[in-house]
Design a protein that fits this description.
The protein is an alpha+beta fold. It folds into five domains: 49 residues; 46 residues; 142 residues, Nucleotidyltransferase, domain 5, CATH 3.30.420; 62 residues, no CATH class; 41 residues, no CATH class. 38% of the residues lie in helices and 16% in strands. It contains twelve helices and twelve strands. A hairpin with a 2-residue loop joins strand 10 and strand 11. It is elongated. It starts with a helix and ends in a 20-residue tail after the last helix.
């Protein structure tokens, strides 16, 4: 007998002995008087055994048939071998038309050795913070370097914007590395889709914060910080990863769900993955978004043109024109095209806007200038941090392999299809 059945037998015996009336016995057991009468009748006939459920030891009426259970096991082994129980149950319903609970899937996975419960270790306890009340008050942003395509394409980074109040994914973008340019491109998508939020919540990476303690020059802001200031968006840096736990947990879930969704669809490149992100965000937001406490949105709509938004997102630097109306920028020398002699512009200050797509927009006293590039000069490679190091190493490996291929093939032998040379019409 179980503990509950032993307690029930004790109350029933008191009722039979007259120590309790049937109404009081029903109140203690949380059942009606008619059920107490049935229990008393069963106990007088069979003793304590009459209080044990007769269904014990028998198969459930809702038990899956062996054929269906075997079919689920085959699908879990062949198609969903590394899926978690919850995601596997969703895909069984979506792709195979089999409706089964996640716990049933877990039991079948355990029987086949596909699922092993993780050992939980004691974790540091962090004080929980309530969600912000309005959509757009706080957008958590982060980049997640990962092998998103499981070897079908190079490793890359996924930039993630997620709302703190609702858990809604507002913008995502694949990028080779976690860089300011990748964040600005994702910010552009967010502003065009939802407007300008009140604040961003990020880590303390050099993209968002000047970490040099002895920085004596500059305005103390990074390029992303200047853009946020121009758009009147607050930028808050978290002290720990746990402080921005919503985006960190989302990254973990994305590394499981998004990877498997792209595998099932046969996505093998960043371009294909980027095209799929809009559909994936719709599926995610349907599944995981919660209602905010305050239905009003905190976003401010962007009422200007997209060209003006591109200028707001552009990096800005001043240059001084020489006597011949030339200046240097980014390893290239430029000459200003003028109709007249342009003597008034000599020694003048021009403002160079570098748009996120690489184009230059140069102004002099709010007048747009036409340029001609006429020369280049060497520029030192940028320093790599822990989030760009992998991409730099992969580029060096690719260059080394290309050089070895060229050395191994004699001069003039690189015909279409020879020594790895591309065929015409196939990437040539």
């Amino acid at each position: 007998m179980s503990k509950a059945e032993r307690e029930r037998a004790f109350v029933v015996r008191q009722c039979v002995d007259g120590a309790l009336c049937q109404r009081e016995a029903g109140e203690r057991l949380g059942i009606g008087v008619r059920q107490v009468k049935r229990l008393v009748r069963n106990w007088r006939r069979d003793g304590d055994a009459g209080l044990v459920s007769r269904q014990r030891g028998r198969p459930s009426h809702r038990r899956l048939s062996e054929a269906l259970r075997s079919r689920i096991g085959v699908l879990l082994s062949e198609t969903y071998a590394d899926f978690g129980p919850t995601l596997a149950a969703e895909k069984l319903l979506e792709r195979d038309g089999i409706k089964v609970s996640a716990e049933t899937v877990r039991q079948i996975q355990m029987d086949r050795g596909l699922w092993r419960p993780k050992r939980r270790r004691a974790k540091r306890v962090f004080q929980l913070r309530d969600r912000r009340p309005r959509f757009g008050e706080l957008i958590q942003i982060d980049g997640s370097p990962h092998d998103w395509f499981e070897g079908r394409a190079p490793r890359c980074t996924l930039i993630v914007f997620i709302d703190d109040a609702t858990g809604q994914l507002t913008a995502m973008r694949f990028a080779p590395v976690e860089s300011c340019k990748a964040y600005l491109e994702t910010l552009r998508e967010h502003v065009l889709a939802h407007g300008m939020p009140l604040a961003f919540y990020s880590d303390r990476h050099g993209i968002f914060r000047v970490n040099a303690k002895d920085a004596a020059s500059g305005d103390g802001k990074t390029e992303f910080g200047r853009v946020a200031e121009r758009l009147e968006i607050g930028l808050i840096n978290a002290l720990t990863p746990q402080a921005k736990g919503r985006v960190e947990r989302a990254n973990q879930t994305l590394q499981d769900r998004l990877v498997k969704e792209m595998r099932l669809r046969g996505i093998c490149s960043m371009a294909e993955g980027q095209a799929f992100l809009a559909e994936f965000m719709r599926l995610w937001n349907t599944r995981f978004v919660v209602e905010p406490r305050d239905p009003r949105s905190a976003h401010r709509p962007w009422t200007k043109t997209t060209d003006e938004l591109d200028l707001a997102l552009a990096s800005r630097e001043e240059r001084t024109l020489s006597k011949s109306l030339t200046f240097s920028y980014g390893g290239t020398k430029y000459c200003v095209n003028t109709r007249g002699p342009g003597t008034a512009m000599r020694g003048g200050k021009v403002l160079v806007h570098r748009l996120i797509d690489g184009r230059l927009h140069v102004t002099y006293k709010d007048r747009v200038l036409l340029l001609t590039a006429y020369g280049t000069y060497p520029v030192a490679d940028p320093a790599a941090d822990e989030k760009t190091l992998d991409a730099r190493v992969e580029a060096i490996i690719a260059a080394r392999e290309t050089a070895q291929t060229m050395v191994s093939c004699p001069a003039g032998s690189l015909k279409p299809g020879a020594c790895g040379a591309p065929l015409r019409g196939f990437g040539a």
